[in-house]
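Q&A log
Question type: sequence-to-structure
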Amino acid sequence: FEELNPTSVKAANSAADKSYITLTGKITKKYDAEEYMFQDSTGTIKIEFDDDYIPIGGFNVGTKMKVVGEIDKDMVGRTLEVKNYKLLK
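Response status: OK
Response body:
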């Protein structure tokens, strides 16, 4: 697990498209097995996992983790496309 540009959700929400960053926080909402709302002390951002890399059924609300991913900016907003993650206790 390699950290890339550790930052905050607040900073991620203004980061350039295709930036690689690391966030530490928890899941606050589950949309489906691949899409979640992620929160740290500075705000929230939508994150998306590739279904090949997550457990069956996905993660639960409240799961604490560190995620490394790429910012995907579109007309609606930003999503962090998770490339790697580490569960935290």
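Response note: The mean pLDDT is 93.
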